[in-house]
Design brief:
Number of helices: 3
Structural class: alpha+beta
Order of helices and strands: HEHHEEE
Radius of gyration: 12 Å
Mean pLDDT: 85
Strand content: 35-45%
Shape: globular
Oligomer: single chain
Length: 84
């Protein structure tokens, strides 16, 4: 199960930059407040490192967080499902 989850994260990390439309801060607050998107704290454990930047984006009718994550001295982009 963990391997499938890891595969999906990597797949979304490759696809997301092309398809995701990121929200402004006020739009992101509204999406979280309305319950349409999970708060960052609820998905932060899936980042795999220290989050240095986060953007909430719409993708395929749902929401994802595009995260810049510091791990092992390198910053990488990770995409995590944020839809409820």
């Amino acid at each position: 199960m963990k391997q499938i989850f890891a595969f999906l994260i990597v797949t979304f990390a490759v696809i997301a930059p092309v398809q995701a439309a990121c929200l402004s801060q006020s739009q992101a607050r509204d999406a979280v407040a309305s319950g349409k998107a999970a708060p960052l704290g609820a998905v932060a454990g899936q980042a795999g490192g220290e989050i240095v930047k986060a953007q909430l984006c719409q993708q395929g009718g749902g929401y994802v967080y595009r995260l810049s994550v510091l791990k092992g001295g390198k910053v990488t982009t990770v995409t995590v499902n944020a839809s409820r």
